[in-house]
Model the fold of this input.
Amino acid sequence: HIPQGPVCTNLGLKPGQRLTVRGKIAPNAKSFVMNLGKDATLLGLHFNPRFDAHGDVNTIVCNSKKVEEWGLRKLSLTFPFALQITFDVNQNDVTVRLPGHQFTFPNRLNLSVFDYFDTQGDFTLQSLSWE
Done:
């Protein structure tokens, strides 16, 4: 069972806006998840850093979910996680900015607004801000 963190709804994030997440990763973290989308069933970005989970070590798994239909994309990284993560919402993708690294993930569901954000797993949310 993965512990559920805060759930935010009605964010209203649109292209050109940015969500900044700050928090702490548990000392013996296995993995954590951040979801960004329309709601819990339509996730434009499922961001899942895995330190040692599901057979993945030091891997970030990114995905999208439409009801129960998942795509798949994996990125292997060194983990810079004293944590601030920024999600920049663009017209066709989301740019994920980590300390010393960034990548984009396509907006596969063509969401015009990201209203939903949640965290799960070995991560403690300290602050959430958007602009």
Remarks:
- The mean pLDDT is 85.
- Residues 41 and 67 are 5 Å apart (CA to CA).
- The first strand starts at residue 4 and ends at 8.
- The chain has one domain: 4-130.
